[in-house]
Design brief:
By secondary structure, the chain is α+β, with helices and mostly antiparallel strands. It has a single domain (27-305), classed as DD-peptidase/beta-lactamase superfamily (Beta-lactamase). 40% of the residues lie in helices and 17% in strands.
């Protein structure tokens, strides 16, 4: 039986506050100047045919620091797996299933690309370990096994409970998407993704225990190739602060898709951010231009928090 996922008044109030957040009065001028470089870079990419969506907000004040078409629904590839992790963490809190309960992989779960479980011999892993693999390497096989066990419908119901209307995990991970499959693994708006990561950082997604568990899994992420490439962190070990910088993020990569959302804390401030790019990946130069643009936004974020 699925847990009760009715929308609480508190959740609705938090979503309403997020949707109407205004620029901060105290740091607005600094923020506008600090993010002008990233804004200009994203604008140039848009002129060159890249579909761009981005948002950054101050964790403490909710002030909007950067906003570029942040309401637009964009392909976000593996970022939608965060919604799966929220469901896993919530179910571990409310149902009679333990973190050490074993799940078996099967031929129907098999999928290539991201992840390491496909390269390991072990046929079964605990639920919590599968979630850690998803957080650390965006493991596609672990994702499919968890989805088969919990159900995509349950993840969708949880997403609706959170009040998200432009962000969703749409399907299993597939090596090939046919005409009857969802065209993307996940979609999302930068507005909602920054709200989601802000809520996780503050312990407001479902409850503090669920939020903290998801943050713990995401803190293992080894992909710092996009926005986070500007932060100077060790991709394989950054769970504790380095030079006062602490990051939790999730990335999404697919053909013509680069997307990242996260929370960055520094000595001076904390930010939640989301940047998504949808582009014609016809050449290495096109891809590198997108990655350079994401890194530029990362530099602005780093300067703001540091």
């Amino acid at each position: 039986m699925l847990p009760d996922v009715s929308v609480s008044a508190q959740d609705s109030e938090r979503r309403s506050r997020h949707s109407t957040a205004k620029r901060g009065k105290h740091r607005g001028a600094f923020a506008a100047e600090n993010f002008s470089r990233g804004f200009a870079t994203l604008g140039q990419l848009a002129l060159n045919g890249v579909q761009v969506s981005a948002r950054a907000t101050d964790l403490a004040t909710g002030a909007v620091l950067l906003s570029v078409d942040d309401h637009v629904v964009m392909p976000t590839a593996s970022i939608g797996k965060v919604l799966l992790l929220v469901e896993v963490a919530a179910r571990l809190q409310t149902e009679d299933i333990g973190a050490l309960a074993l799940l078996d992989r099967s031929l129907e779960d098999a999928v290539a690309n991201a992840g390491i479980w496909q390269h390991l011999q072990v046929p079964s892993l605990p639920i919590a370990d599968l979630a850690a693999l998803v957080g650390a390497t965006s493991d596609n096989l672990a994702t499919n096994v968890l989805l088969r066990s919990l159900g995509l419908e349950a993840v969708s119901a949880r997403t609706e409970t959170l009040g998200l209307t432009r962000t969703a995990l749409l399907d299993l991970v597939r090596d090939y998407r046919g005409p009857d499959d969802a065209p993307q693994l996940s979609v999302g708006s930068a507005n909602e993704l920054t709200w989601l990561f802000s809520g996780l950082a503050r312990g407001e997604i479902v409850n503090p225990e669920t939020s903290q568990r998801v943050i713990g899994w995401l803190s293992l992420n080894t992909d710092l190739s996009m926005v986070a490439s500007a932060f100077g962190l060790d991709p394989l070990a950054h769970r504790s602060a380095e030079h006062g910088i602490l990051l939790v993020n999730k990335t999404g990569t697919d053909a013509g898709v680069r997307s990242e959302a996260g929370v960055l804390r520094g000595p001076r401030a904390g930010v939640a951010y989301a940047v998504s790019m949808y582009f014609s990946d016809v050449s290495l130069a096109s891809r590198l231009a997108v990655l350079d643009g994401m890194r530029t936004v990362g530099i602005d974020l780093l300067e703001y928090v540091y």
